């Protein structure tokens, strides 16, 4: 299983990327509507409308030294160029998390999630602000991410803008 993200969408790029995949359950993210991407996919591929969303970007600036909401603790670490942030509840269970890959002056934010029982408590905001502060401290000034409909609302409050639909395609031979 893996993921490929295409920076632009045209028929030959989408077909070539999909044709290069041999491992089932590999994802291909394409900056276009899932209905359009589905027309260019070879057999075995599905454009998953449930997983599709929005390609978003933001000019990054330091926030205000985020503090974990009351009752939660946070950890962060960097491994192999990827920064990971986790937020834990009082029992030590993971309540929220996110990660980002640093690519020079740009970062790609990925897998920001808050567990259902912990939503609407500011945890997603805290994770994003923590990641952004780390990115800016490291010299990054551009952030990119793929957002679900639910995530889009959070990211827009933090200044992120939608630039394109984002089709999520999966190889299911």
TrEMBL record:
Annotated Gene3D superfamilies: 3.40.630.30
Pfam families given in the database record: Acetyltransf_1
Entries under SUPFAM superfamilies matching the protein: Acyl-CoA N-acyltransferases (Nat)
InterPro entries recorded: Acyl_CoA_acyltransferase (IPR016181), GNAT_dom (IPR000182)
N-acetyltransferase domain mapped to chain residues: 43-173
Residues of the signal peptide: none
Protein name: GNAT family N-acetyltransferase
Organism this protein belongs to: Streptomyces decoyicus
């Amino acid at each position: 299983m893996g993921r490929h993200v295409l920076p632009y969408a045209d028929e030959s790029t989408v077909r070539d990327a999909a044709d290069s995949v041999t491992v089932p359950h590999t994802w291909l993210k394409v900056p276009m509507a899932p209905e359009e991407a589905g027309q260019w996919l070879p057999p075995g591929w599905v454009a998953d409308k449930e997983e599709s969303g929005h390609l978003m970007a933001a000019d990054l600036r330091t926030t205000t030294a985020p503090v974990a909401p009351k009752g939660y603790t946070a950890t962060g670490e960097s491994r192999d160029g990827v920064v990971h942030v986790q937020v834990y509840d009082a029992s030590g269970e993971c309540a929220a998390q996110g990660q980002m890959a640093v690519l020079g002056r740009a970062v790609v934010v990925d897998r920001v999630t808050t567990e259902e029982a912990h939503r609407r408590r500011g945890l997603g905001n805290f994770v994003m602000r923590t990641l952004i502060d780390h990115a800016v401290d490291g010299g990054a000034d551009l952030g990119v991410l793929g957002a679900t409909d639910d995530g889009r609302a959070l990211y827009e409050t933090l200044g992120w803008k939608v630039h394109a639909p984002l089709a999520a395609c999966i190889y299911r031979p």
